Amino acid sequence: MSSSSSCSESASSSVVYDHEPFATFRLRVLELAQSIWVGASPEEITIERMAGGGFNRIIGLSRTIGSQEEEKTQYVLRVPRFDAAQLDREVAVLQFVRRYSEIPVPEVVGFNETSNNVLGDPYMVQKRVPGFDLYSSFPKLDHTSKCRIAQQLGLFFRQMLSLRSQVAGVLVLPPDNKSLEAPLQVAPFCGTDPSSSAGLTLLRCTGNTKHA
User: Which residues, including other chains, have CB under 8 Å from residue 211's CB and lie 6 or more apart?
Assistant: First the structure.
């Protein structure tokens, strides 16, 4: 197993957010990675400390088979920083966008919204998207590239605005089926017991822009 980290980032998670230091947390991350890549040896797995955001601790996971770089599989592990996070609802939104639009979003590989797992924290694993974040790279782009991005964002917004649900509410996964293939449901904006299916409505969406 190999790993990389940053002292400043470690201080941010450990001190500011009261997270377990990366040096010890990575051992549990390795165990999680080996449950994803069954049969993988620690030498094949790289655990990378990445810059997190205000809501998630971010860790990169990759597996390289042999010495072939093209055989590398890369994922991103997201661990919510706050107990109030509703990870299953975030998954529901990502699944909605993937199923009903052509807007590219990172594919969710797996998740657990509870602390009953090897990490001791809720987590989401997604396929890693290559490239650079728009926030830091946008000022360096030329005018033509900026216009192209603005046009693409406009197309994305148009797709989202064209989608309609038969009822208003919050996208959720069924309480008794938190799999990635589960049918999406709509919960009222408030007053819903997350462990109960009472008040939930099966999502029926119009304006689907996903090509068959």
Answer: 102
For 99, phi then psi, to 5°, come to -80, -35
Tens digit of each residue's pLDDT (9 = 90 or more) over 185-208 = 999 988 666 667 778 899 988 887
Cα 58 to Cα 6: distance, rounded to the nearest angstrom: 12
Residue whose structure tokens are 């009953």: 116
What is the total count of domains within the chain? Answer: 1
3-state helix, strand, coil in the chain (%, to 5): 35, 20, 45
Q: How far apart are CA 158 and CA 211, in angstroms?
A: 16
- Give the residue among 96, 12, 92 at the shortest CA–CA distance from 49: 12
Instruction: Give this prediction's pTM.
Output: 0.85
Structural domain of 109? 22-131
Q: Which residues pair with 186 in a beta bridge?
A: 171, 201
Residue 87 sits in a domain whose CATH number is 3.30.200.20
